[in-house]
Design brief:
alpha/beta; globular
Amino acid sequence: MKRLVIDIETVGLPWEEHDPYVREYLIKGKSEAEAEEEKRRGGLSPFRGQIVAIGVMNADDGRACALYEIPGQTDLVTRREGMRTFISGNEKLILERFWDFLGRNDRFISFNGRQFDGPFLMLRSAIHGLVPKRDLVGYRYGFHPNCDLRESLNFYGALTRQSRFNLDLACKSFGIDSSKTDSMDGRAVETLYRAGRYEEIASYCLEDVRATCELYLKLAPTLLSFDTSFRESEERERRVRAAFQNPLPLSVEPPVVPMMVQDPPMVADTGAAMTRDAHAAEPGLDSAEYPFLSYDEDLVRETF
């Protein structure tokens, strides 16, 4: 199981590129000020916007990757800087590579990912004809395999509106250096994108995942550990890793697994034959639950 911290940056399509009927639908019944605000909100909708950067960080070792969009680029280009990897391409290409990174049993860690990053990634993939490898929204009341830190901090919405917070405020409260600066936050992404400063967006996205990762490491032993699904996945992972790190000595014969045998038919009074299994094989490690046992990770090993 990889513990992957994920964040995306998005921009809206230019208002003029929308169909006239779509524009009418979006601003119908709104005041002039509300209509202007609606025009600027395209980046918050997967139907009106697109993904321009995906940041991914392995919470266990700090390796990180930024997948970022360059309009018109039809091939993936990879560049490495120490523990950081930068991969550029068009939106479809970076989404394809993102799904290569995420295994079925990996933990998807985010801040507000259940309401924003997860649905956005899945819908933009579907729009490009890509099949998402797994559900990034799922069951709300649990922190594995999807772990939304915002849900943990607001106790699934129990905190009132008077306690509203964002990633910046949460990080500062926990003594973590924020990814936001006076000149750079999520509102500046579209301006950078229109100016062609794509790699700056990628670097900012990695700062977001760095801050989110540090917040996760603070919450994992404190608030997240109250959740049953989180605790069980951690314990399961410890057992699996221990089994691989401490294999049986070669001189020790592996235990014999009893074969499935069948007793002779038991004939009921009606003459109908009834059978039963005398033994049931004890289940072993399931490659569907632990895909790294059988999944070829050559494609992503260099990055994570």
